[in-house]
Design a protein that fits this description.
4-stranded antiparallel sheet; alpha+beta; 47% helix; 201 residues; 4 strands; elongated; Alpha-Beta Plaits
Length: 201
């Protein structure tokens, strides 16, 4: 029973660790401290291993819980006569499994935590509209993209923001009479992710 508790605990920890790099930007948004968003981005290369470990641990925990008892265990069932504690029940293991799956899938739905930033931008002179591509390091999932977009969209004169963790860049279209490349760079850097190169188009 004690080994089963340890397995469940290990499954929870690995599931949380596997998604920590994507959970942190959402926590940063809620807490209003955008600078901590990239704190656990270093975990991203280990994510596949942590996911695999979580699955192995939970499958083994379920196997331990569901496997038929041997004759020896049936004969020595004196300790099983009393009702098992909730933490040792199948219900608790099911709750832990659902929680672990939600944690592992977090990058897929992280964007729902960010408010919609659709707004009307009035550009007085079309010649003032500029596009700049910012190479950004540290983004690891859609949550990171949403966090960067959220911060840049706080600036006046932003027409469009396209952040891509896969391309490691943020393409920003803005009214240069209202904001500047330097201001956009500052907004991106404030999230904890780092601008490494800028190309004006």
């Amino acid at each position: 029973m004690k080994s089963n508790k340890k397995l469940i605990g290990a499954g929870l920890l690995t599931a949380i660790a596997a998604s920590l790099c994507c959970i942190t930007p959402v926590l940063a948004l809620i807490a209003g401290t955008s600078g901590i968003a990239s704190t656990f981005s270093w975990l991203e290369p280990f994510r596949p291993y942590l996911i695999g470990l979580t699955i192995v641990v939970l499958v083994f925990a379920w196997y331990q819980k569901l496997k038929p008892r041997s004759q020896e265990e049936i004969e020595c069932a004196c300790e099983d006569d009393e009702k098992p504690k909730f933490i040792q029940s199948k219900t608790f293991l099911a709750i832990v499994t659902v929680f672990a799956v939600l944690m592992l899938a977090f990058p897929l739905y992280a964007n729902v935590f960010y408010p919609s930033q659709d707004r009307q931008v009035i550009v007085v002179d079309q010649q003032n509209v500029q596009t700049a591509t910012f190479s950004v390091s540290g983004m690891t999932c859609t949550g990171c993209e949403e966090h960067v977009s959220h911060e840049v969209n706080k600036l006046d004169g932003i027409v469009e923001v396209k952040a891509s963790y896969a391309n490691e860049n943020v393409i920003v279209q803005f009214d240069s009479s209202k904001t500047s490349v330097a201001e956009v760079e500052k907004a991106i850097n404030s999230t904890g992710y780092a601008v490494t190169n800028i190309k004006n188009q």
